[in-house]
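REVIEWER CHECKLIST
Item 1: Sequence provided? yes
Item 2: Single chain? yes
Item 3: Sequence as submitted:
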Amino acid sequence: MNKYFKPEVANYALLLFLGAVWAASFVAIKISNEMFNPIEVGFYRTAIGAIFLFCAVKFRGAKVNVMNSNMRTYALVGFLNASVPFTLLPYGLITMPSNIGVIILSANPFLALILAHFFTLDEKLSLRKVIGSIIGFSGVIFAVGMEILVSDIDSLISALAIYIGASSYVISNLIIRRISHLPSDIVTMNTLLWGSIWLLPIILIFGNFHNINFSWTPFFAIIYLGVIPTGFAFSLRQVLIRNAGSTFMMQVGYIIPIFGIFYGWLLLGEKVGYSLIISVILVIIGISISRIRVNKKLPE
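Item 4: Structure as written out by the authors:
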């Protein structure tokens, strides 16, 4: 019992922590957009995260070898997990309200369920997982409200940008399982390095290197994005994928909106109604149902 209980508690705690950190990243992206364009936000966030992890790897005395047998996997994950979402999410959030953005993000567990069923051996689709995801998603709807419809073409494009960026996370989570046995900081460092390489020629074309309206708040926001939600939290994400699977990790999409509303109440004085309480209950129920251990003799 103890051997099963302790790892499960650690997985849930890590899932909760990642939800809290990544919810704060939406605020940081909004602030960063005040000084940087989406390409710059993506490149600087990725590069800062790579530098942070390079220092961490060297500090613990590990060997840094960029040109290795896993280079193609690093390059692919870096493109899907950094280059694409780190530029499309800031682009979508320029005009899209954050509450709608997190609703789009919370659709990730559905896509994760389907892809994991076909591309993994140990994360097959089951009725309880589908029911759990539906309940969890309904919790997100209660949390952020029912205003999820877009009203014009610009909003539609922004919504598509956020969805494509968020979907690339799901695909990269499946690919990263191939190298999940390797040290998480080294894997994340290499993927972020490749993410920076993909974005380097684009930022040289579209980056604003002249007439910059410098402001300390966006500057510190981009530093925070690179170090905490990217370098640090992405390393922990790999640990969670290794321990609990990509489908479980993607349920963080249900938790992010909850923390987003909590930050609004804590930092901005926004009111918290019964909808948040209901949403928290539904999210907990949804995740719990999807994680119920079923007797192997019985079909799921």
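Item 5: Key structural point noted by reviewer: The chain has twelve helices and no strands.
Item 6: Recommendation: ____
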